Amino acid sequence: MMRTLVIVPTYNEAENIRPIIARIRAAVPEAHVLIVDDNSPDGTGLISDDLAAADSQVKVLHRPGKSGLGAAYLQGFARAIEQGYDAVVEIDADGSHDPAELPAMLAIVGNESADLVIGSRWVAGGSVINWPWARRAISRTGNRYARAMLRSSIHDLTAGFRAYRTSALLGLDRAVVSSQGYCFQVELAWRIEVAGGVVREHPIAFVERATGQSKMGAGIVAEALIRVTGWGLASWFGRAPAQVSRAADPSSELGA
Predict the structure, then answer these.
(1) Global pTM?
(2) What is the pLDDT of residues 55-73, one digit of tens each?
(3) For the chain, which residues make up each domain, given as ranges?
(4) Considering only CA atoms, which of 192, 190, 186 is closest in space to residue 221?
(5) Quick one: 4-240 is in which CATH superfamily?
(6) How many degrees, rounded to 5, is the angle at CA 23 between CA 3 and CA 65?
């Protein structure tokens, strides 16, 4: 079995953190879980500490403030590399991603030597549940635009449910992966694809959160539009993205 670290970034997810951790532990009981909390004012960090105290396979990384999704994942990736995990998982804390899909996604990483497996809403068999038509349209249009601009073969570039081969993350740090918000997901998948990594998409049903507040906002959408347009134009004019280096010393990667 691959040693797997499941990273769960949190900000004000007090209502959701206990059930999602329970579902993750049931789906992949051999995996370890790292909750990365951005000093949530609603007490998510304290609840996470209780979960960690009761379960040795759950750990908590407390950050001093809200620093963004990208930075949270980069710190989690750094820990996975330093501690020798074979695979790393991204999953939202709000319950919109079903942890029951993880065994299948991790099997693709292991059996097909995939560098990245994306839990995709926009491939055959994928779906979204309880989304208003406007948000569905924004997501589909945004993904199509990003795919065209970046000349990518990935259908769901913005998806936040993923399993990575840890070796594919070596060399990615803040100097390379510069985005925050959900644009981080676009950039990371695209850079792995451009570097020649094997990317697969596994169909999932995405369910809109039942409790708590979505972190999606106009600023996140605007950042993605601006950055994707810039990357696309640069690549069209022959300026490839910064390539991923493969350093021998994992401690030099992904600065915390």
Answers:
(1) 0.87
(2) 999 999 999 998 888 999 9
(3) 4-240
(4) 186
(5) Spore Coat Polysaccharide Biosynthesis Protein SpsA; Chain A (3.90.550.10)
(6) 80
